[in-house]
Specification:
Helix content is 29%, strand content 17%. Its cofactor is Mn(2+).
């Protein structure tokens, strides 16, 4: 799924290699590894069900002169573009903008209204609490997307930003003042946020010229402002930078004792109570005790050198002077604190059911050189898991005990190593004398897959591809037979095919099933009520993947069930050329994803086209579908064993969207030369879903690119034939769609490989 790496994150990531997370935490654009759509908090009685439809009015965002309009029946909200307030009014019926104005509009066939949350009462209650805060109250209150673990994906009970604003996208931050409300999000969610936010909100489209991220915008507020945020919901480094920048303007960052949104969230969903389970070593390749010992070795390596001991005074020293006092050695790190849910799950070989689509356990972990303590709701720990944890020398304490444990320094003397992404509340509890900042050792280890994990990924991607091919064959037959299949129905049927696979746990993220204009929304998610019918006129985009015990899958293919137009074929071919360029890349060891990113865009740039999301992200091993620290667009060196997606795209707003995504493994390759003594790296492709050749405009491809397509599809068929042999419809489909190309004028199909 398409991640988002804004330009300012790429710049900041150059400051320190090894992690992008601190830069990401400085903005509302939470993507290290960037985002699949998340399930909405539909358990709140007062919140409306979010309905998306391809017939909703789409808002242009690229043209500098364009202003954003909303579907008929809704008033204009406030829209910030290029730093200027373009339109503002109260919530209520309005007439659409006249086409004679300077605005560019997209006219749908039949606009459908979208019910929005009325945030008026919630904002009023929040502002009352802001005024009641000590020392004159708060002028601004920041509500991020993240939870107390800086998670990209969160449990329904932690979706505070969604509750207060109604915006359900997985990435974004809102800031409420005494009389205004501001929402910040990136290009993946411009249209969605415009649809979901009511007239109380000003939308800041971060990434457009002149539009600041929230962390920069808040610095420009009036001098002397008091800015509040829950210290659990902001990363350490982000809090330090923000506090310093506010102080320079005589403003102050404060941390209320309680979360103000929680106080007004009367129907807040209960905290998740999913059971913890063990992931067997046959999937992980390494036991928890072995992984913990690696962490302990790293902790010992972080100890500062012992200062030299002065044994006698220099010859020219004063004989009457007192001997120098012995130098007190600095306090050495003796433990590491882990707040990342994915890191905890990986290092302990446990998984859970606390976060939709992500097999995570809400917990904290404290690792010393002798033991490990897991802070978790004990109700989730079965006797079997308790026995397993004890066998790995891991003790269990209640989740809420972590704060008193840190405050009292129950481990004794010595400092604690914390990652800059650790919630700032942890730093406040430890105080500066008790912690040392260090990039996460576990995050880096987790990103380099071991041989067992890599083989698991290969197997999982083959099974997932077989399910997709069988489903594509079914869908093709249904549509060509005259059936009207909605985006939502197609996605549900795909899940059924995946459920037939072994080791299937669930979906890796909410299925992106998009036809027509909806495919131009990178993170569109169809609902049963508002889904569009999949047509034979526009490309159909599906971005989905299964969670398997042996791997997390993420695949996007764009297909056509009729005859693609010349414009659609050209766009598809340019995207495909970028996809091929990344797939075939060979590069010296030490090369970063950011250095390769241009390869995916070069063919699009030739035609003056581009895409705003990231080109690719890391993937966890039966963990999060987005994983750092590496990614295309990120200044972190790619390492052997990293898994990364390759997903360029193109989106024509109001018309169609194209994206092609495969997962790759970084591997060592053999080259003729060894310039500078470097090792040279390349990619192995995991994804086994073929490319639909009738979408390709063959005359645009080079001879080498044509050969790549042919070899790619032959490899897919060879790998999948044994897995789909029982499904004759799938066998016919994969041979037809992966070997023939079509003309845009619907004359017919012809072979065209030379």
């Amino acid at each position: 799924m398409a991640p988002f790496y804004p330009s300012f994150v790429r710049k900041n990531s150059l400051k320190r290699k090894g992690s992008i997370s601190n830069d990401r935490s400085l903005s509302s654009l939470n993507n290290s590894t960037n985002e699949k759509p998340s399930a909405s908090v539909d358990t709140i009685a007062t919140a409306s069900v979010h309905k998306k439809s391809s017939l909703d009015t789409l808002r242009p965002s690229a043209n500098k002169s364009a202003i954003n309009i909303v579907p008929p029946g809704f008033g204009w909200g406030k829209v910030i573009k290029e730093g200027k307030l373009l339109s503002i009014s109260t919530f209520g019926p309005k007439q659409p903008v006249s086409p004679t104005s300077s605005a560019q509009t997209q006219t749908p066939t039949s606009p459908t209204s979208h019910k929005r949350l009325d945030s008026t009462a919630r904002l009023a209650s929040l502002r009352e609490l802001m005024r009641a805060e000590p020392d004159g109250g708060l002028d601004y209150y920041i509500i991020p997307s993240e939870d107390a673990h800086q998670s990209e994906y969160t449990a329904p009970s932690d979706r505070r930003r969604e509750f207060i604003s109604g915006f359900t996208g997985s990435s974004g931050t809102v800031i409420v003042s005494r009389n205004e409300a501001h929402a910040f999000t990136d290009s993946r969610y411009f249209v969605q946020a415009s649809r979901e936010l009511d007239g109380n909100w000003t939308l800041h489209k971060v990434g457009l010229p002149g539009v600041l991220p929230w962390s920069e915008w808040i610095k420009d507020r009036p001098r002397g402002s008091r800015v509040g945020i829950d210290s659990r919901l902001i990363a350490h480094e982000a809090a330090v930078v923000l506090s310093s920048s506010l102080s320079s303007r005589y403003s102050k960052l404060t941390f209320p004792r309680v979360n103000l949104v929680d106080k007004i969230w009367k129907a807040r969903p209960p905290k998740p109570q999913g059971a913890v389970f063990q992931l067997d070593v046959r999937y992980t390749g390494k036991s928890a005790s072995e992984k913990l010992e690696d962490v302990r070795t790293w902790i010992r390596s972080q100890r500062p050198p012992t200062p030299p001991v002065v044994t006698k005074a220099p010859k020219d020293s004063n004989p009457d002077a007192k001997p120098p006092s012995p130098v007190k050695p600095p306090m050495a790190p003796v433990a590491a604190f882990v707040s990342s849910l994915a890191s905890i799950a990986w290092v302990l070989n446990i998984r859970g059911n606390d976060v939709p689509f992500n097999p995570l356990v809400i917990s904290y972990l404290f690792i010393t050189t002798k033991q490990a303590i897991l802070f978790v709701d004990k109700a989730k720990i079965s006797p079997e898991i308790a026995t397993y944890l004890k066998s790995q020398n891991i003790s269990v304490r209640e989740y809420g005990d972590v704060w008193s444990f840190l405050r009292r320094a129950e481990w004794g003397d010595g400092k604690v190593l914390i990652d800059p992404k650790t919630p700032y509340a942890v730093s406040l509890m430890l105080t500066s004398s008790r912690y040392t900042l260090a990039p996460s050792f576990i995050e880096k280890q987790k990103a380099v897959k071991n041989p067992v994990e890599l083989q698991g990924f290969r197997n999982a991607y083959a099974r997932d591809a077989a399910a997709m091919v069988r489903w594509y064959a079914w869908l093709d037959e249904q549509i060509k037979g005259g059936a009207q299949i909605t985006e939502w129905e197609a996605a549900e049927e795909l899940t059924k095919f995946r459920e037939e696979n072994g080791d299937f746990w669930g979906l890796a993220y909410e299925n992106i099933s998009a036809s027509g204009p909806n495919a131009a929304l990178p993170h569109y998610s169809a609902t049963q009520e508002g889904a569009a019918i999949i047509d034979i006129v526009t490309p159909y985009l599906n971005d989905s993947g299964g969670q398997y015990l042996d791997g997390t899958c993420d695949t996007t293919r764009t297909v056509h069930f009729g005859f693609p137009t010349n414009e659609q074929m050209e766009a598809y071919t340019r995207v495909l050329q970028g996809h091929i360029a990344i797939d075939q890349a060979i590069f010296p060891e030490g090369t970063t994803g950011a250095q390769l990113d241009v390869l995916a865009r070069k063919a699009l740039w030739k035609d003056g086209l581009n895409y705003l999301h990231g080109t690719g992200h890391g993937i966890g091993a039966f963990l999060n579908v987005h994983e750092g620290p590496h990614g295309f667009g990120i200044a972190v060196p790619l390492e052997i064993g990293n898994i990364i997606t390759n997903e360029p795209g193109f989106y024509k707003e109001g018309s169609f969207g194209i994206r092609i995504e495969s997962a790759l493994v970084v591997k060592r390759v053999t080259t003729k030369g060894k310039f500078g003594g470097n090792q040279w790296l390349g990619f192995e492709r995991l994804t086994q879903v073929p490319i639909q050749t009738k979408m390709i405009k063959m005359e645009l491809l080079t001879k080498e690119e044509k050969a790549w397509v042919k070899d790619h599809n032959i490899a897919c068929r060879t790998r999948l034939d044994p897995l789909i042999a029982h499904d004759k419809r799938a066998v016919r489909w994969i041979r037809r769609e992966s070997t023939k190309s079509g003309s845009s004028n619907a004359v017919g199909l012809t072979f065209d490989w030379d």
